[in-house]
């Protein structure tokens, strides 16, 4: 599959990456199954709830400058119930840790939140965040269960 350009919206990026991950997982089932389990275990509520963990993952995505990660974790943080104010606070910490480049990537999260709010995907409409901790990554690689 050909990589998409940066003019895609974040919901479009998320869908594209999910489709490529499905293909990748067919060729690398062990690695994707293992990563899917790691992700599931890491995001499952423990001392921290799943929402907090998704907000942390989003801040790390900004500090790491990973637009694909921003797409996944903005989606998942919003679905887990994170508010724009909570995400904004986490972005401040990401900028503190990552400096100017993270400040630029923090603006990507602002765009992603707006786009997920204005252009809800089937996933956003059909998933009750109170009844699931499944992430967009796990959903894209259906054989993890």
List the helices and strands and how they pair.
Blueprint: H1 10-27, H2 29-43, H3 50-64, H4 67-79, H5 84-118, H6 122-126, H7 136-140
Number-wise, the strands total 0
Radius of gyration, rounded? 15 Å
Please state the structural category. mainly alpha
* Structural shape: globular
Q: What summary fits the major beta sheet?
A: none
First-residue to last-residue Cα separation: 25 Å
Helix content: over 70%
SS strand fraction: under 5%
Element-by-element helix/strand order: HHHHHHH
Fold-level CATH name: AhpD-like
CATH class division: Mainly Alpha
CATH superfamily: AhpD-like
Number of domains: 1
Number of helices: 7
CATH architect. name: Up-down Bundle
Report the uncertain regions. 119-133
Mean pLDDT: 83
Question: Short description, anyone?
Answer:
The chain has 145 residues and is an all-alpha fold. The chain is 73% helix and 0% strand.
Describe the fold and architecture:
This protein has 145 residues and is an all-alpha fold. It has a single domain (23-144), classed as AhpD-like. 73% of the residues lie in helices and 0% in strands. It is built from seven helices and no strands. It has helices spanning 10-27, 29-43, 50-64, 67-79, 84-118, 122-126, 136-140. Helix 1 (10-27) crosses helix 2 and helix 3 (50-64) runs antiparallel to helix 4. It is globular, with a radius of gyration of 15 Å. It starts with 9 loop residues before the first helix and ends in a 5-residue tail after the last helix. Mean pLDDT is 83; it is low at 119-133.
